[in-house]
Design brief:
CATH superfamily of the largest domain: Alpha/Beta hydrolase fold, catalytic domain
Helix content: 40-55%
Oligomer: single chain
Strand order of the largest sheet: 4-1-13-12-11-10-8-9-6-5-7
Largest sheet: 11 strands, mixed
Number of helices: 17
CATH class of the largest domain: Alpha Beta
CATH architecture of the largest domain: 3-Layer(aba) Sandwich
CATH topology of the largest domain: Rossmann fold
Number of domains: 2
Length: 499
């Protein structure tokens, strides 16, 4: 599309030169052509009925065993549990979405334009979590509004070099709150951790929307032992946290979530941990789960607006006319702001000093260009394509041993939806349950009432899964390892078969 657009512009300028037509007039025509193309693409793909298209594992061998309240031994697969308990995630179920947001572009644009500042009011207290490499990341915990307001400004635990004011809905923990969190407990209250999207934090509307649904599902008090203990792990350099090491984040950087989960497993050994990753947060979470295999420490995970193959998603993002014009630029711009904010610390990295010049910054109008100059260089890759090839969770999908519910829109203009080769590969992995929908865009999913469709059934699923199965006596997950896909390569080569 971009090639043909450039070809058209060349023809128009050649015509102008031959016929002595003012270039400004040609530019006006070009603007009209671009606007017409955008409007045509946006409004000719109109529908407002969302249909779920679930992809089932070919060999659904992962069984959840538990003893129910009647003392009976029960077992089921995750797909059976979903079909029985969460009808919204069942294949063929449908719902009415906002008719004014009738395709993926409009859903995505609305998610980016509207602030949702006063919707789903959720309050957080922050612990600055120190990772083993010396970095600080914001670990934000949901608290009742009364607790949020009970700690005055001068009683909050501040850290040198960090801003004292975070935002209207987030404050630092007090000494007492920090001590209680770090002391730990032997209780069984479940933990839920969200990893937000690109340069995201707990202030994102999709984070607050899900936590609001989850914490109010049974109308329990937020600090009840029967309710979830909810956290958001902000990406490095985001959420108003100044970096303390010359490194940001990428889809393959999993150490932050690894150490946070290790912290909770150490301090709260009897608690089940559930996770959700959104957009790039889903890439990080997915890679972590695949790297850790049976030792992930996560009972159930959700991947929302996920990317399994970074190369194909990047190609679609950069070569589709509207996606390249709007979304790629919109994703690159906040990353440049992150660099500008943390440039003094980042200058300790020689690769950053080399790349961060006025000339380079002017070139960065697309996400892939940013990844070429910065993301890939921070983490030792040669270029963006090298990072995309190595960072794709699809590479290590065979190692996954944590049940995953993947929630994606087939009309997502940022990730290009879930492509057939991903669905096919995932179908051989019985730990993956694909919940694909026909409408929703990128982290949109806005219903007729402007609520995010996926939040309520996801909250229902994890709540019922925990209460009916994971918290019950003798809960365990079983499968036959010999029936799982096995890696065909040994020492990076195909084995020689001698007959």
């Amino acid at each position: 599309m971009l090639f043909y657009g450039q070809l058209l512009l060349d023809k128009l300028y050649s015509f102008a030169q031959r016929n002595s037509v003012e270039v400004s007039e040609i530019q006006n025509y070009c603007v009209l052509i671009v606007l017409f193309t955008i409007l045509y693409k946006v409004f000719t793909n109109v529908h407002w009925i969302n249909v779920v298209k679930t992809s089932y594992p070919r060999n659904d061998i992962v069984q959840f065993h538990h003893v129910d309240e009647n003392g009976q031994n029960n077992s089921c697969t995750l797909q059976e549990f979903i079909n029985e308990n969460v009808k919204e995630f069942s294949n063929g179920s449908w719902s009415i979405f906002n008719p004014l947001l009738s395709n993926g572009h409009l859903q995505t644009m609305w998610a980016g334009i509207r602030q949702f500042r006063f919707s789903d009011k959720v309050y957080f207290t922050r612990k600055l979590f120190r990772v083993s490499d010396g970095a600080l990341v914001g670990l934000d915990r949901v608290v009742p509004v009364a607790q949020f307001n009970s700690v005055p400004f001068d009683k909050q635990r501040f850290t040198d070099g960090q801003p004292q004011k975070i935002d209207s809905f987030t404050r630092y923990m007090s000494e007492e709150e920090l001590e209680k969190l770090e002391t730990g407990s032997d209780d069984t209250r479940p933990i839920f951790i969200i990893l937000p999207g690109l340069s995201g934090s707990s202030s994102e509307s999709y984070v607050r929307s899900f936590f609001y649904e989850l914490l109010n599902y049974y109308n329990l008090k937020l600090d009840s032992d029967s309710n979830f203990d909810c956290y958001c792990l902000n990406t490095r350099g985001s959420g108003n946290v100044n970096i303390t090491t010359p490194q940001l984040f990428c889809g393959l950087w999993t150490q932050d979530i690894r150490e946070v989960i290790q912290f909770f497993k150490l301090k709260y050994p009897n608690r089940k941990i559930y996770c959700m990753g959104v957009s790039i947060g889903s890439i990080i979470l997915n890679n972590y789960l695949c790297q850790e295999g049976e030792n992930s420490g996560v009972t159930l995970a959700f991947l929302v607006a996920s990317v399994w193959d970074l190369s194909t998603s990047s190609y679609a993002l950069e070569n589709n006319f509207i996606s390249s014009l709007f979304y790629s630029t919109a994703l690159a711009f906040p990353l440049l702001k992150v660099l500008d904010r943390h440039k003094n610390k980042l200058r300790e990295d020689p690769s950053f000093v080399k790349s961060y010049t006025p000339e380079t910054c002017k070139k960065i109008v697309k996400l892939k260009i940013f990844d070429d100059y910065f993301t890939s260089q921070f983490f030792g890759f040669t270029c963006a394509n090298h990072y995309y090839a190595e960072g794709s969770p699809l590479n290590r999908i065979i190692n996954l041993r944590t049940p995953v519910v993947n929630i994606s829109s087939l009309d997502d203009p940022v990730t290009n939806g879930v492509e057939p080769h991903i669905i096919d590969r995932a179908s051989f992995q019985p730990f993956i349950n694909m919940v694909n929908v026909t409408l929703g865009g990128h982290v949109g999913f806005f219903t007729f009432t402007n609520r995010r469709w996926h939040c309520r059934p996801a909250a229902e699923l994890v709540t019922k899964f925990h209460n009916k199965m994971a918290s019950q006596p003798a809960f365990e997950m079983k499968w036959d390892e010999t029936l799982l896909p096995q890696p065909p390569l040994h020492n990076d080569r195909l084995p020689v078969k001698i007959t």
